[in-house]
Design a protein that fits this description.
Length: about 190
């Protein structure tokens, strides 16, 4: 092999090595970004789960306080207990979202009952629990927003070329959003006439 052909071979080999190293670096970087996005979804979901548990822990205290004033409203208390149990046993985003919506409806019915008992509305224990519940609902809303943002980033990344190739190789699939039911979007009717 002459000096010129040897130099040409070494240059060609160096170019191939540089291309292989560049492709490998791109693959590793893209894969790590996708793993990071997937972990962000898991962390966001854990925060939602944490806040839902906090709310579930508050509800029995709220129910017991209301029961002291409105013991004849047993159907609402049963609905809340059932919704709470269903939420505690929910698995996955879709089932949790459905259980969350059911719990929201049951709590709304409880708060409608409260309107019929002025002495309950002024009870210090009830006011404190209601404030804590409202704070928890705000935390759930923020956690749900962060989760949906993480899902949006992840879904976009795994669907865009060339990242979609790596996502398919790793078996990554589109993640579901935490959405509320259409009925929850309706504006509640407030009546102060009674």
């Amino acid at each position: 092999m002459s000096g010129k052909s040897r130099a040409g071979f070494i240059i060609s080999l160096a170019i191939v090595v540089i291309i292989v190293i560049s492709l490998f670096s791109w693959f590793v970087s893209t894969r790590n970004q996708m793993v990071t996005l997937e972990e962000r979804i898991d962390a966001s979901w854990a925060e939602i789960d944490n806040q839902l548990q906090r709310r579930s822990d508050l509800i029995p205290n709220l129910v017991e306080t209301v029961k002291g004033f409105a013991s004849q409203e047993s159907e609402v208390f049963t609905n809340i207990a059932d919704a709470r149990a269903k939420l505690a046993g929910a698995e996955g985003v879709q089932e949790t979202a459905e259980s969350y919506n059911e719990m929201q409806g049951a709590l709304s019915r409880l708060l409608v009952i409260v309107e019929n008992y002025p002495e309950l509305k002024s009870n210090e224990n009830f006011i404190r629990l209601q404030d804590e519940l409202a704070g928890t609902e705000n935390r759930i809303a923020v956690a749900r927003k962060r989760y949906n943002e993480a899902v949006e980033q992840f879904n976009r990344r795994i669907r865009m070329f060339p990242g979609s190739i790596i996502a398919n190789m790793m078996g990554m699939e589109k993640q579901p959003y935490f959405e509320i039911e259409e009925s929850a979007r309706e504006v509640p009717e407030v009546d102060f006439s009674s």
